Amino acid sequence: IGNTVLHILVLQPNKTFACHMYSLILSYDRKKEGPGSLELIPNNEGLTPFKLAGVEGNTVMFQYLMQKRKHNLWSFGPLTTVLYDLTEIDSWAEDQSFLELIVSTKKREARQILDLTPVKELVSLKWNMYGRPYFCFLALFYILYMVCFTMCCVYRPLKPRIGNKTSSRDNTIYIQKMLQESYMTYEDELRLVGELITVIGAVVILILEIPDILRVGAAKYFGQTILGGPFHIIVITYACMILVTMVMRLTSTTGEVVPMSFALVLGWCNVMYFARGFQMLGPFTIMIQKMIFGDLMRFCWLMAVVILGFASAFYIIFQTENPENLGQFYNYPMSLFTTFELFLTIIDGPANYDVDLPFMYSVVYFAFAIIATLLMLNLLIAMMGDTHWRVAHERDELWRAQVVATTVMLERKLPRCLWPRSGICGREYGLGDRWYLRVEDRVDPNKHKVMRYTEAFKAQDRDNYDKGLEKMEINRNILYKKELSALSLSRSTSRTSSHRGWEILRHNT
């Protein structure tokens, strides 16, 4: 019952009352520490009161709980050294990491905890000492891996075509080799080494990604922008395309260019995932994700309807015409592709001035240009501008959350020998087996004095303003010019006294 009440207090809107009641309940708990403590008993979701305060974004309760966990080591003048208990905060030995819970929640208030002590110092320590070097090395390794895969695709086994052309539009001169013909020369053996590296890399990607999907859940794993959801979809699809290409190569099945092309596009697009490690590029990847999965997905439905309608009209118009004179609409798939290019203004309206064009083509193309180019493209630009304005206010905050998520991911993936535990063991200071983070804080001794000066001068300004209002009420029936001059004099007097007060404040500061 006491543990349930603690969880309820964390959710209370009255923060001061919740903190006092929290201390009162813990005062009746005999077991202050250990597994039987009320603060360490999780609820049905596996959250202790401390983790629940972080997930809900209750910064007041979080700071209150952290004040109970800190130990003042020593003080010398304005410098103070404090040890913060990292229990439930450090993700090194936690199955359900506090940092991972913070970055995976949808509440923006929860991400503000990442700027509080000691979470900010802990994340900065982990990222600067281990996270950034490992992440940069991983980015370099992945780029080299993609270069290897690209070279294997560029020099894939091909042989000249022997058969006759089936139509005048057939332009194929090379075809895919069979498996027995693909690995005969020294260059083929060198390419085989690169192909084996590519396949091994795809298997490793699946081995690393699948356990996290099973642990977190597919909806949460792929749906969170901060956790890199879209990039996880991209890299898993890339690995599957590599395995499909391998099976088609081993079975000598034609058409391996399809999964190979998808793999090349997805693999190189996944390089943008590593931009989150850099402050200059990280916020832009967030902007791209928001626009693609927000504005662009909604816009594609409207674009598909327009393209289907006008492509069908263009195909019907040119169905009776000679495709050799104007071949952009010679069949329905080509009509769809040509209309898509016209929609994005990639090409101009197709026309052959040596032949007569149907009259309806000019009418339909005029309507298409008005709807597609003038209306819908400007609508897309306006939607993206609105998204940019909304995301710009929190992109730095989202980028810091991405850094935290990347740090937790690397800490889970890497062996313990490459990522030692952060902090100081409490045994060195007689505080048991818990781990602590040492934080040095500088306290300004004149801080409270300056704040009192500020409040005093603000009160003086308010008094002068009230006096001015009273004077205006008394002289209500006086002429406008006299009243205006009196008001100006009152304001100048107030400004003069305030000016003297603020000069004293600046000098003391």
TrEMBL record:
Pfam families with a match to the protein in the record: Ion_trans (PF00520)
Keyword Cell division set for record: no
GO biological process: calcium ion import across plasma membrane
Keyword Secreted part of the UniProt annotation: no
Sorted UniProt keywords: ANK repeat, Membrane, Metal-binding, Phosphoprotein, Receptor, Repeat, Transmembrane, Transmembrane helix
Places the protein is found: Membrane
GO molecular function: calcium channel activity; metal ion binding
Membrane protein topology class: Multi-pass membrane protein
Top-level taxon in the UniProt lineage: Eukaryota
GO CC entries: plasma membrane
UniProt domain Ion transport: residue ranges: 135-393
PANTHER family: TRANSIENT RECEPTOR POTENTIAL CATION CHANNEL SUBFAMILY V MEMBER 6, TRANSIENT RECEPTOR POTENTIAL ION CHANNEL PROTEIN
Transmembrane intervals: 134-158, 192-210, 231-251, 257-275, 296-318, 359-381
Protein name, entry field: Transient receptor potential cation channel subfamily V member 5
